[in-house]
Design a protein that fits this description.
The structure holds 2 protein chains of 2 kinds. By secondary structure, chain A is of the alpha+beta class. Chain A contains 4 helices and 10 strands. Helix content of chain A is 16%, strand content 38%. By secondary structure, chain B is of the alpha+beta class. The chains are: A alpha+beta, B alpha+beta.
Chain lengths: 262, 295
């Protein structure tokens, strides 16, 4: 579901930032533009990765190539790989071009038979991200992105069947979770999962006693912002160790792949 | 010696640049103008890591050993010698600096909870995690061919709870073999407890914190008898202490301010230590930042 919003101060700042970058970059570039209109395909993939060992939380994975290769690479390194979002947007490679990757959903909470019990505000799960594009040379362009991801590892782990996420399990987890395993053509599975968003209908169980506490799934918010001067095919990877400490380590990968089209 | 290195040496000599250790602060007022030479837009990748270190002895890790580390794995190895190390966060972001840019490292979590008694206040839902932004500036002080300097200025907080961290440890029931490699990081139980709650290891298990357990002697009495469901319900109803909300156990959030400035070269390891407050054996918090060219 596309959510339309009025331009915010953050949006304007993002534009100003990319404009500043482009001004500097254009002054530096020998040949700023050649005037040939082109389009840019942006492919965004969000991956939840459970590493094989805890030491891998600190590893620099140095991922390259198309996003399907990223999945395959991580699959060989960890216990499981979940593609939680994949979307593609087309924009013109011209100043002030912008693309939005929005896939959110809200699950309000209602307690039946508990009048007067306060309920927390409904959490919005999913991805909200905008990417601003500005060319700075014949082959170079600047991407600046800003947004956030709200998600819950509790909900992802509790799902059975993984209807809305595609899970690629590593060798360590195959025995325990073979029912969820996708074998073989991972790229096809990824393509089928475009703009899937999240399905989070579950409310954690409380007891039947009046003194029970109803726990909602943990809500994690990861901020996403950054920018890069890049060329066609260069992979942009941001990582966030979403679960660390004494808990089961998990890493979120945000992989943005730009492709210039003639 | 390259001109850039001479410049760094001068900065260090006059006190403008501190070593990458401890409370990192730089007096930036005396810095020369940033761009002596035009610096093209540079892609800088910044990795930020938060480590919790609990030295087994009373003293922290040796400052000289920590300060001489050149990589994050090396630092972890040094700290592990002195005590368990936990990775509280590890984030990597990219920024195009022309010559400066701001990047945010935000990763927080909440676990909303509802009390079924309408007449009682709801448990407060604290926000735990990291909220920090950093300004990155690239400047060249030597020549166009010299490696550029990086200036980092960061400001933010880490909100956590040593009580929660200790609770997570108690919940960790599996002696994972790799715990020996990184002590303090263990996998937690993924099974429903007696009340049907599932701790997937992903959250804070607030219910477990709020609920009081049945007294041990009462539990022993119940165990061999194996009463019927109706009898068990009556016992539970009579035992008012069981699963009664206890607000006294709610972990207070502890906020640690993370602020500083630093000048150095790409690839250098910046280590800043903070003492974690209050609780016993809370240990030290290490902020580790490493940036490198991402072109």
């Amino acid at each position: 579901m596309e959510i339309l919003r009025e331009p915010t101060v953050k949006t304007l700042l993002l534009f100003a930032f990319t404009a500043g970058l482009a001004t500097c970059g254009t002054a530096w570039a020998a040949n700023p533009t050649n005037g040939v209109p082109r389009s840019l395909a942006l492919e965004l993939t969000v991956i939840r990765f459970k590493p094989e060992s805890k030491d891998q939380v600190l590893q620099d994975f140095q991922l390259t190539g198309p996003s399907s290769n990223v999945v395959e690479t991580l699959r060989g390194l960890g216990r499981s790989v979940d593609v939680v979002y994949r979307g593609t947007r087309e924009v013109a490679l011209e100043p002030n071009a912008m693309a939005r990757f929005d896939a959110t959903e809200t699950r309000p909470v209602i307690l039946v038979g508990k009048p007067g019990v306060p309920v927390p505000p409904a959490a919005v799960y999913g991805l909200t991200l905008q990417v601003t594009v500005r060319p700075v040379g014949e082959e170079s362009f600047i991407l600046a992105w800003d947004g956030s991801l709200n998600w819950s590892p509790d909900l992802m782990d509790r799902r059975t069947g993984m209807q809305n996420t595609f899970q690629f399990l590593g060798k360590a987890a195959n025995l325990a979770q073979s029912a969820s395993q996708f074998a073989g053509d991972s790229q096809g599975a990824i393509r089928g999962g475009a703009d899937i968003g999240f399905a989070v209908a579950e409310l954690f169980k409380g007891g039947n006693m009046d003194s029970s506490i109803y726990e909602l799934p943990v809500l994690k918010t990861v901020g996403l912002n950054g920018s890069r001067v890049c060329k066609d095919g260069q992979l942009i990877v941001s990582t966030t160790a979403a679960e660390a400490g004494v808990k089961e380590p998990q890493i979120l990968f945000f992989v943005l792949a730009p492709h210039v089209e003639p | 010696m390259k001109p850039a290195h001479v410049f760094a040496l001068v900065l260090t000599t006059v006190g403008l640049m501190s070593s990458a250790w401890g409370q990192v602060t730089i007096l930036t007022n005396g810095l020369p103008a940033a761009n002596h030479f035009a610096v093209p837009p540079s892609n800088i990748a910044v990795s930020l890591t938060l480590l919790r270190h609990r030295p087994t002895r009373q003293t922290s890790a040796d400052a000289d050993s920590v300060g001489s580390c050149r990589s994050l794995p090396e630092l972890v190895q040094v700290l592990k010698v002195a005590g368990p190390v936990e990775v509280l966060g590890h984030l990597r972001r990219e920024i195009a600096c022309a010559p400066s840019g701001r990047i945010e490292f935000n990763s927080v979590e909440t676990r909303p909870a509802i009390l079924a008694q309408g007449y009682l206040p709801s448990p407060t839902n604290h926000v735990f995690g990291l909220e920090l932004h950093a300004d990155v500036t690239v400047f060249s002080a030597g020549s166009p061919t010299a490696p550029p300097f990086l200036m980092l200025s960061w400001n933010g907080t880490w909100a956590g709870s040593t009580t929660l961290l200790a609770t997570w440890e108690k919940l960790a029931v599996r002696g994972f073999t790799l715990a020996a490699a990184v002590p303090g990081i263990t996998y937690s139980k993924v099974e429903p407890d007696e009340d049907g709650f599932v701790n997937t290891g992903g959250g804070t298990d607030l219910g477990g914190l709020f609920r009081r357990r049945k007294p041990k002697d009462a539990a022993k009495k119940d165990a061999p008898a194996k009463p019927s469901k109706a009898a068990k319900a009556a016992v539970i109803a009579a035992a008012t202490t069981e699963r009664e909300p206890s607000y006294a156990s709610e972990p207070p959030p502890e906020k640690i301010v993370l602020q500083g400035d630093w000048i150095g070269f790409a690839g250098q390891l910046l280590v800043s230590r903070r003492e974690m407050p209050a609780a016993d054996q809370s240990g030290d918090l290490y902020l580790v930042i490493q940036s490198h060219r991402a072109d």
